[in-house]
Amino acid sequence: MRKVITYGTFDLLHAGHINLLRRAKELGDYLIVVVSTDEFNWNEKQKKWPVRRIILFAVLVLVVCLGVAAYVFRDSLNLDAARRFVRYLNVSGGGTDGQFLFDAGNANQYADFDGGLAVARASYIAGASSTSNVLAGKIYGIPVFGTHAHSWVMAFPTELDAFRAFAKSSPKNCCLLLDTYDVRQGIKNAITCAKEMEEAGERLAAVRIDSGDLAKLSKEARAAFDEAGLPYVKVSVSNDLDEYTIQSLFAQGAPIDSFGVGTKLATCDPQPSLGGVYKLSAIRASADEPWRPVIKLSEQAYKRTIPGVQRVLRFFDEAECPVGDMIYQARAATR
Q1: 178 C-beta neighbours (distance < 10 Å), count
Q2: 136 to each of 27, 70, 235, 243, how far by Cα in Å?
């Protein structure tokens, strides 16, 4: 299915608008009409129309009569998300070659509580196949797709134990994250888990790689699963993807089945964003037990974590302005 999207203020409804929508509908199988709200127009252009609600209603009626879909964007971030996702679809072909994209930006967006929901909805309307936001799936009926966190793997004695536990909890939609420690060992553990799932009458749906040389590692993963007799296992990737990175992966012949697009979609890059993420550094079973340090490893140095219970000490100058921070391990907390 080919989706077409058009957007605007539609402040004056005239024959040109009607012809535009009709022509747009002829370009694909599914037409999405985006109409901005009064609040959006005021924030962006400092303009208000006294009969905007009547015009908006007229446009929606027109949309219904034409048999197309309509969506009202409440702010510029939602609109930018849809615009940007259209560019992703142009790069990937909208899944026509078997690949698909899913919104994975809930942990990265910086808006209010509703921000992650809005991005998931905007992305799905613009053509995303699914979302990693479970709440958005529940509220809007968007298909949900995703993996466990790195912290899930780090909470178990071994990576294989974590994979087995996740497969047991999600046997119908199991996607394993391979790069908590070492991708190549993760591939071996995922194959072991997939074989065990087959014995139980289930199938491993996919694996995800979130760091390193995605083109190289995806090729290694595809070859390993094919050789193990598991050609049905899909390969998904993420890690600050944008349309240019995806295009580069295609050019390198990477055998990738899906792309999880997070930060640069949810925050509408190039708008500024802070690339900070949650990672587990220590774990204990109860308050009476000592902390067990855990570490996240990666081929990319900036993705490696410092194990143990950490504290932050901030230094100030004579004018009470912060001049630096120091991260140190709280020794007392390890006992």
Answers
A1: 28
A2: 29, 18, 24, 24
- Global pTM value: 0.70
pLDDT band at 107 (very low <50, low <70, confident <90, very high): low
Phi, psi of 252, rounded to the nearest 5 degrees: -85, 0
DSSP codes of every residue in 272-332: ----------EE-SSTTSPPEE-----SSGGG----S-EEEEEEE-TTS-EEEEEEEE-GG
| CA dist., res. 180 & res. 279, Å (int) | 11
Choose among 40, 42, 30, 34: nearest CA to 4. 30
Return the percentage of the chain with pLDDT > 70, whole number.
64
Residue 222 near residue 187 (C-beta atoms within 8 A): no
User: What value does the mean pLDDT of the chain take?
Assistant: 79
